[in-house]
Design goal:
The complex is a heterodimer of chains A (499) and B (499). Chain A has helices spanning 3-30, 35-43, 50-73, 81-97, 103-115, 119-151, 153-161, 165-188, 190-204, 209-222, 229-253, 263-276, 288-299, 304-346, 353-363, 378-387, 395-414, 418-439, 448-459, 464-483, 485-490, 495-498; one strand at residues 348-349. Chain A has 499 residues and is an all-alpha fold. Chain A has 2 domains: 17-334, no CATH class; 367-498, no CATH class. Chain B is α/β, with parallel strands linked by helices and 499 residues long. Chain B contains 13 helices and 19 strands. In chain B, the strands form 4 sheets. In chain B, strands 3, 4, 10, 11, 12, 13, 16 and 17 form an 8-stranded mixed beta sheet that branches. In chain B, helix 2 (29-40) links the parallel strand 1 (20-25) and strand 2 (45-48). Chain B is globular and about 70 Å long. Residues 1-16 of chain B have low confidence and may be disordered. Classes of the chains: A mainly alpha (499), B alpha/beta (499). The interface between A and B is large, with 72 and 88 residues. Strand 1 (348-349) of chain A pairs parallel with strand 8 of chain B, so a sheet runs across the interface.
């Protein structure tokens, strides 16, 4: 019982700490700042086309993150790239909106819901991604500093001589190296790690033995994807690509402020800023983001005011698209949960035994009559007429058989799932438009032979989607047409027709 | 202790109904057998069935457009999507897919059971343990071989098989339906569930609620407390009801069981391992008259390459013939006039690709089915086509028309043999299937299975899967026998465990 309030206090303190850190970094960023020059720098920033490119890069990075999540869970669940990307984006958006980085938990929660993985496994996957991100970021920082040292020695020596930089970089390197060693041990020797931990647990906290070993097994399953060399390579390559795209965001916005679009500058700004974001701060990393991003440029000799303008623009590009996307996911996700609740509330009790008996009586009556198909549109009628070999039939029966065929085709299309139905209707509209463009007349006013030619062109053409559409129409139309008693009676060689 | 009295004594209250002891969702091969055994043991049992009771007249064509409206889910418009779409149909009336299938009967091949044991940890399910359940099902359904001479299309296939020196068998079928007042001597009606097991279950005390679609399972931690279901009234209105339950047996079929579980937030290994038997059809033209419409369902199957590849006669009506010829309609249209000389055959392979079942809560309850053909599937289909074409040519066929867009007519054995070494063009394939399964595999391996060896869903105390979706992977044969045997075995195991 006492855990609830204690947890609440911890959360409150963490939030307070984050806000204090934000205030501290904001204050660090804006002290001695020439506000007028910052404002004019931002106002004069050349956003087109750089902002568009930067956002495109950043969003592509998130799709790649989604692909990486999909690969990481592929041994236990099949997620689509879209779902996996939404999981990732949700995590980022929650971090943007709430203090103390609860996005990682939100992300794990949604991953659990979508994939069916256990909570511990999902959290492991999420933390694994963050660990890989951290390792790649440290590597990128080292690469950027090394590259810049050769070209612009003074700038990097400024950076490395900053009183906070060297210990911070060393700490991050040590932390991620330790994480990497732990990860490798769990990937390569999972049995050994579980055995060692279980021994230690049984000695020190035997009561929690089952829970800890269970969790460790889940964590071990969470990193299972890395045990396959091909998948491990994919994950590493994707992580590098993800951060390359993120560096693109920083790089593309440099020219917006009249700075050179130097790849190493972008890389340095990106890695330094993201390592800085590991520190607790307010929602959306306001303050911390600006400070570290600005400092990375200041080390390269950019004026404070321009650097702050740049940091502000990068932050906006970093913050808004993903937050909006995340809010859209939250709404949809929330609607899903709400609709479940609503269904439960709307549901009534099952009818009593007596009511059930009456129902059985009604439904138990013999019935070999299906609902009639709705009347087909003129277009479907003309389409059906163009699809089926109508000349097989005597003229007096053609209208009735084609009408029943068209009704059946319409009824079958109406039975497709909503998404498939929309696609088919869209494709049929495309077909009508294409026919109109080709003949400058609506499909329904064309001669039958002309319509037949157009249908054949789509059914046997080189465009696969067009073929798929006509295959659907043709199959349903053929079934209705050839199963019609008038058609089977009229078909040459049919014993019935000979009789 | 479970007892029957609650329902009969009318304890069910509108405001706070007491739980029904066992709710069975679905009335197909799995649901019917489960309900029968539960009711016989005195357990209060309610079957929720989405479809209606349909009394079919003798001679009713189950492949006709009228049957599609009455008996099929979404009138047969439930395609499996993927790079190669696969036409798939399943039953959705009282009796499930047993109302539309051919009634062909197979016991689970021993090697398949061994594989399930080795790969999924399926225990207590060897040939000896399943034998009494198969014996019971075969005697209940009157499974037997036909006493009549083979129809011409099967005789021709037998001739080809003999000349190739391969093995084949006449497949046993479910026996004819019992005579009733309306149909004193059924000729074509078979003992589907609605005419065999379900009436016995109702006599034993099971209640049935038709037109009732289970929308969601209500969960409380690791327990299912009931089912949310929607009743379609005969006046077109819908009513959402809550069905409280002590135990829920989900037997909603290959696609709906995983969809329902996923909609309910139960996702561990659910819907990620969907499998099917992709089937390729061919039409053969013989010099003599075959009159395949007279014997729509050939009985012979080639077992030489079984269970990886099965070949046999395909369902034949004029409508279905047109569908098989539709891929190359320009060249094949004329063949419709020679339909008396034509017969249809199929190659089915044990699918080894990966598929998924997904469901969306938003909007209508749609189920998205996806399956990606594996390289092995395409290879087996190619080799199957080659062998089937060879056997048909050996049987005297003049021409063989595969349902593959752009593939030329096969007239000589050397043209057929080409596909022993080459892969058919994937995108040109026109595939169908009627056998789907394995989206919620059973077995003791929790990393691969949704339920244990007796269909009890992992992590849930009172949720059970007793249908085709619980089969660990493709059985390689018509699954009705396997489903009935496993459903009975699992139910008897459940009853034995009750205090």
């Amino acid at each position: 019982m006492a855990r609830g309030p204690a947890r609440g206090w911890r959360k409150f303190l963490l939030t307070l700490l984050g806000l204090a850190a934000s205030v501290f970094f904001v204050q660090l960023s804006i002290r001695d700042l020439d506000w007028e020059r910052t404002r004019s720098g931002l106002a004069n920033a050349d956003l087109t086309p750089w902002l568009g490119w930067a956002i495109a890069c950043y969003l592509t990075g998130h799709v790649l993150r989604g692909v990486r999540t999909r690969v990481l869970v592929s041994r236990h669940a099949q997620l689509s790239t879209w779902d996996a990307t939404n999981v990732v984006v949700l995590g980022y958006a929650v971090n943007n909106l709430l203090p103390a980085r609860p996005g990682e938990f939100a992300r794990a929660g949604m991953l659990t819901r979508l994939s069916g993985l256990s909570w511990a496994q999902s959290l492991t996957v999420t933390l694994l991604e963050r660990l890989l991100d951290g390792i790649v970021m440290v590597l990128f920082l080292i690469v950027a500093v090394t590259a810049l040292q050769q070209t612009e020695g003074s700038a990097t020596s400024d950076l490395l001589s900053a009183e906070w930089a060297r210990p911070a970089i060393l700490l991050a390197t040590a932390l991620f190296s330790a994480g990497l060693i732990g990860l490798l041990a769990l990937v390569v020797f999972p049995g050994l790690v579980i055995q060692l931990v279980s021994r230690a647990i049984s000695w020190f906290i035997p009561r929690s033995y089952a829970a800890v070993v269970g969790m460790l097994t889940s964590i071990s399953s969470g990193v299972a994807a890395l045990r396959r060399p091909r998948q491990a390579l994919d994950v590493v390559a994707l992580t590098v690509l993800v951060w390359t795209m993120e560096a693109g965001l920083y790089c593309f916005l440099l020219p917006a402020f009249g700075l050179e679009a130097n790849w190493w500058h972008g890389l340095l700004a990106m890695s330094l800023t993201n390592l800085g974001l590991l520190l607790p701060s307010s929602p959306g990393f306001i303050g911390a983001f600006h400070y570290f991003c600005m400092q990375s440029l200041v080390f390269l000799g950019v004026r404070d005011s321009v650097a702050l303008g740049y940091a502000t623009l990068v932050h906006l590009a970093f913050y808004f698209p993903i937050t909006l996307w995340g809010v859209a996911i939250l709404i949809r996700y929330g609607l899903d949960v709400l609709s479940t609740r609503r269904l439960e509330q709307r549901a009534q009790a099952l009818p009593s035994d007596q009511g059930l008996a009456q129902r059985l009586e009604i439904l138990g009556s013999p019935m070999v009559r299906s609902d009639p198909d709705p009347k087909a549109s003129k277009f479907l009628h003309c389409l059906a007429e163009a699809v089926v070999p109508i000349r097989l039939l005597p003229e007096d029966q053609q209208v009735e058989v084609v009408a029943s065929t068209a009704r059946f085709v319409g009824g079958q299309i109406a039975c497709l799932s909503f998404r498939q139905r929309c696609l088919v209707k869209l494709a049929l509209t495309g077909f009508r438009v294409s026919c109109w463009l080709r003949t400058l007349r609506p499909f329904t006013s064309l001669e039958r032979t002309q319509r037949e030619r157009l249908v054949t062109r789509w059914a046997e053409g080189s465009f696969p989607q067009a073929r798929q559409l006509m295959r659907l129409v043709r199959s349903t139309a053929f079934l209705a047409f050839f199963e019609h008693p008038a058609c089977s009676a009229a078909l040459p060689g049919n014993p019935e027709s000979q009789r | 202790m479970l007892c029957r009295s609650a329902w009969e004594s009318g304890v069910t209250k509108v405001t706070s109904p007491r739980p029904i002891q066992a709710v069975v969702i679905g009335s197909g091969a799995g649901g019917a057998v489960t309900a029968l055994e539960l009711a016989r043991a005195g357990v209060e049992t309610l079957i929720l069935e989405e479809g209606t009771r349909v009394e079919l007249p003798d001679g009713f064509d189950k492949g006709s457009p009228e049957a599609m409206k009455l008996l099929y889910r979404r009138r047969g418009m439930t395609p499996i999507l993927g790079r190669v779409p696969i036409g798939y149909v399943e039953g959705a009336s009282f009796g499930g897919s047993t109302e539309i299938n051919s009634g062909f009967w197979h016991r689970t091949p021993p090697e398949v059971l061994l594989r399930w044991h080795a790969q999924y940890g399926l225990s207590d399910a060897d040939v000896g343990e399943l034998a009494p359940h198969f014996d019971w099902a075969e005697s209940t359904l009157g499974v037997s071989r036909s006493n009549e001479p083979l129809p011409e299309n099967s005789r021709l296939l037998a001739k080809g098989v003999e000349s190739m020196g391969w093995s084949s068998m006449e497949v046993p079928r479910v026996g004819p339906a019992e005579p009733t007042e309306q149909i004193p001597a059924p000729r074509t009606l078979r003992k589907a569930m609605s005419r065999s097991v379900l009436p016995a279950a109702e006599r034993a005390g099971a209640k049935v609620l038709t037109r009732c679609r289970a929308k969601m399972l209500i969960r409380e931690r690791r327990r299912i407390t009931g089912v949310l279901a929607e009743i379609r009234n005969t006046d077109g209105t819908r009513q959402l009801v809550r069905v409280p339950a002590d135990h829920v047996f989900v037997c909603a079929g290959a696609t709906e069981t995983p969809a329902l579980l996923r909609r309910s937030g139960i996702r561990h290994r659910v819907g990620d391992t969907f499998r099917c038997h992709p089937m390729l059809k061919v039409t053969a033209r013989f010099p003599g008259i075959v009159d395949s419409t007279e014997s729509a369902l050939p009985l012979l199957q080639i077992k030489e390459f079984w269970p990886e590849i099965t070949m046999g006669g395909a369902f034949f009506t004029l409508g279905h013939l047109a569908l098989m010829l539709a891929d190359n309609w320009g060249e094949n249209e004329v063949r419709m006039q020679e339909h008396r000389h034509l017969a249809a055959y199929y190659v089915a392979v044990r699918g080894t690709g990966e598929g998924t079942i997904r469901s969306s809560l938003a909007g209508e309850d749609t189920t998205a089915i996806r399956y990606q053909l594996s390289e092995q599937d395409v290879r087996n289909l190619s080799q199957g086509l080659a062998r089937l074409a060879m056997v048909l040519l050996a049987a005297g066929a003049e021409e063989v028309y595969p349902a593959i867009r752009g593939l030329p007519v096969i007239r000589r054995e050397v043209e057929a043999a080409r596909w022993l070494d080459h892969l058919l063009p994937r995108r040109a394939l026109s595939l169908t299937t009627v056998h789907a399964f394995s989206a919620c595999p059973m077995g003791e391996r929790r990393d691969r299975c949704a339920a244990d060896s007796f269909g009890n869903v992992h992590h849930y105390e009172n949720l059970h899967i007793h249908d085709v979706s619980g089969l660990p992977d493709s059985p390689g044969v018509n699954p009705q026998g396997t489903v009935m045997a496993f459903a009975r075995r699992n139910t008897l195991h459940f009853l034995a465990k009750q205090p």
